[in-house]
Design a protein that fits this description.
Elements lengths: L8 H11 L3 H15 L6 H5 L3 H10 L5 H5 L16
Helix pairs in contact: 1-2, 2-4
C-alpha cells in the first residue's frame, strides 16, 4: 500500500464488507483509484499481477462508464464519437 497508507485498515475493511471484496482487493481498488485521479502511471507489478490487490488496483484505475452513457452512445473517456459498425 503506497500513497493511501493514511487510510485506516478499518476503512478498507468497511469498503470490502460493503462490496463483498477481500481486504487486499479493497486496498488495491483505493490505490488504483488514487493513481487514476492523479494521472499517475500504473506500475508493472499491478499491470500484470494476478493477486487480489492487483485485480482491485486495475478495477480502481480503469474508469468505467455508467450503463446509460454506454447504452445511448454518449461520452467516452477519450472524447471520440462512438463507433457503430453495420453488418
Amino acid at each position: 500500500m503506497g500513497e493511501t497508507e493514511s487510510l485506516s485498515k478499518e476503512k478498507f475493511r468497511v469498503l470490502a464488507e460493503r462490496n463483498g471484496w477481500s481486504l487486499a482487493y479493497a486496498e488495491g481498488y483505493v490505490e488504483g483509484e488514487y493513481h487514476r485521479r492523479r494521472s499517475k502511471p500504473m506500475g508493472a507489478y499491478v499491470a500484470i499481477g494476478m493477486d487480489e490487490y492487483c485485480q482491485g488496483f486495475r478495477a480502481g484505475y480503469f474508469e468505467r462508464k455508467d450503463s446509460d452513457s454506454v447504452a445511448n452512445g454518449t461520452a467516452n473517456r477519450f472524447g471520440h464519437a462512438p463507433v457503430f459498425r453495420s453488418s
